[in-house]
Amino acid sequence: MALQPLTVKELAQKILAGEEVFLLDIRKEEDYSDWAIQGRNVRSLNVPYKQLENGVEDVKEQLPEDKNIYVVCAKGISSQKAVTMLEEAGVQNITHLEGGMTAWSEHLEPMKIGDLSNGGELYQFIRIGKGCLSYMVIANGEAAVVDAVRMIDTYKQFASEKGVEIKYVLDTHLHADHISGGKTLADQTDAAYYFPPKDDEGLTFDYKKMEDGAEVTVGNAVNIDAFYSPGHTSGSTSFIVDQTYLMTGDILFVESIGRPDLAGKAEDWVDDLRETLYERYQNVEQDLIVLPAHFGKMEEINEDGTVHAKLKELYQKNDRLNVQDEQEFKHLVTDNLPPQPNSHEEIRKTNMGQKNPDEDERREMEVGPNRCAV
Ligand SMILES: [Fe+2]
C-alpha cells in the first residue's frame, strides 16, 4: 500500500529525535544549495524535477530500498507528480512532504526545556526549517511569549492546550531576519507587548519598555528580568528567566555569535558586541543556561532535540568568545560577513509597523535560511 504523505510536523519530530531520514529534493540546484532540510541523520539527494521528467532510471539506482523516501519540492505539488513517476517505475516506500519547503519553513515544534519555580514551565519553540527559536514561560495560568515568529496560531493553540492565558509578549530586539509575530500576538490575545526602547526608532506602535532592570512576573511566580546587552542591534536586551535561564536573543548562540550589521551598522556596533560578550555576560551568573533566538547549524541541537547550553560552557567551547585581541575580534565580525538575509530591510520595516504586507508577501520575504550569526 502506498505511504501516506509526510507532514512537516512528523518530519520535524523524526529529525529532532535523531531518526534516519532519506529525502529526495527535486527543487533546482541553486535553491537546494541555498537552503535545504538538514538534520543529524538526514541524507538528501537533489535531482531537479526537470531531470526526473527526462527519465527516472538513473535516479532510481541512487535511492535506498530499505528506507522510506520522502520527496521534497517548494510547495508540495510537483513532489506528488514525482512520486507518481517513481512509483510507476517500480519505486516503493515513497511519498511526498506535504506543503514542501514553504510548510517546512513555517513549522514550529514545541519542546520542553524545564520546570520553573512554583510549578512553572518553560518551552522552546523550534522553527527547525529556518533556525528560529522562540519561547513560552508558563506559571499559574499565565504565559509569556518571547521572540514570537509570524505563525502565532501555534502559540495560541499551545496556550489553550495548557489552559493558560497569554498575558505578556516580549521581543529581545527589532528582528531583521524574520517577521516578528509579537505585536500581532499581543493584539490578538490582549497581552501587554514589551520591547527594548533603544530599538524603537521608526516603530509605529506603542509598547511597554523592556529596558535594563525592568521586570515581568508571570503568574505571580516566575520573573523575567531585562538585561541590556547591545551589539546585534543597539537595543538588544537579554532576559533572565527565573534566575536560571539567559535568553540571549541574537547576541550569543551555542556555536557562534550574533552579527552586528543587519541595519548596516557593523562598524558602529562591534564595540558594543564585544563589551556584551566579553564583559557584561562575564558579570552574570555563569551557571545560567543560554537560550538563543536562533541556531545556525543542526549540530547546535542537543540529543534531546532542544537548543541550549550553560554560559560557562560556551566560554569554554565557543571560539568566538575566546578572541582575546580586540582588533582580531573586529575583523572576525566585520570582514567576510555572510550574505544579508533575503529582504532584511523589508522585514525590519514590517516589524516596525511601517509596512503591512499580505500573508503571501510575508511568506515570500522569509524564504531561505536565517543568517543572523557570524
Ligand atoms: Fe536578529
From TrEMBL:
Chain positions covered by the region annotation Disordered: 334-374
Gene Ontology annotations of biological process type: glutathione metabolic process; hydrogen sulfide metabolic process
Record CDD domains: POD-like_MBL-fold
Segments of skewed composition (Basic and acidic residues): 356-366
Domain Rhodanese: 17-113
SUPFAM superfamilies, per database record: Metallo-hydrolase/oxidoreductase, Rhodanese/Cell cycle control phosphatase
GO molecular-function terms, A-Z: sulfur dioxygenase activity
Name listed for the protein in its UniProt record: Rhodanese domain-containing protein
Species classification: Bacteria, Bacillati, Bacillota, Bacilli, Bacillales
